Amino acid sequence: MSDRMRRAPDLSVIRDEVRAVSAYAVPDSTGLTKLDAMENPFSLPAEVARELGERLAQVPLNRYPPSDPRVFRERLAKAIGLPEGMALLLGNGSDELIHLMIQACAKPGAAVLSPWPSFEMYGLSSRFDGCRFVGVPLAADFSLERDTLLAAIAAHRPAIVFISWPNNPTGNLFDRDTVQAVLDAAPGLVVLDEAYLPFAQDTWLPQLSMRPNLLVLRTFSKMGLAGIRLGYLCGDPAWIGEFNKVRPPYNVNVLTLAAAGFMLDRTALLEEQAALLRAERDRLLMRLRSVDGVTAFDSAANFILFRVAGGSVAADRVFAALKGHGILIKNRAHVHPLLAGCLRVTVGTPSENDAFINALNASL
Ligand SMILES: *Cc1c(COP(=O)(O)O)cnc(C)c1O
Question: Which of 24, 43, 284, 285 is 20 to 30 A off residue 74, Cα-Cα?
Answer without folding.
Answer: 43
